[in-house]
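FIELD: query
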Amino acid sequence: FLLLEKPRCGRVITNSSGAIRNPPRNEMHDNITCVWEIKANASDHVVLAFPYLNLDCTNEYFEILDGPPSSTKSLGKTCSGFYLTYASSSNLLLPKCGIWGESFHFSNFRSPYG
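FIELD: result
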């Protein structure tokens, strides 16, 4: 069973498994960047999956950052795809979501991690 995180525009998460999801529409506005910091136990790694992602590639994206904020490495940027999976090299993974523009169509997403 997965614990579903309360939707927020980024935060520190220390549960061993769960899911991140888009923030409520009333918390979204123009030019927003959301960063979730997913921390596993010191000896574990984090795996984040996007079963389906369909963002407006002109104004919306996800970038997956590996490691602590002071020395992150990008595992890639994406805006669409099926069965996308990212694994950290340490116990820390930082998914970052960016949205630009006055009007945008932000698709709902739910991305499990563990």
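FIELD: remark
The chain has no helices and nine strands.
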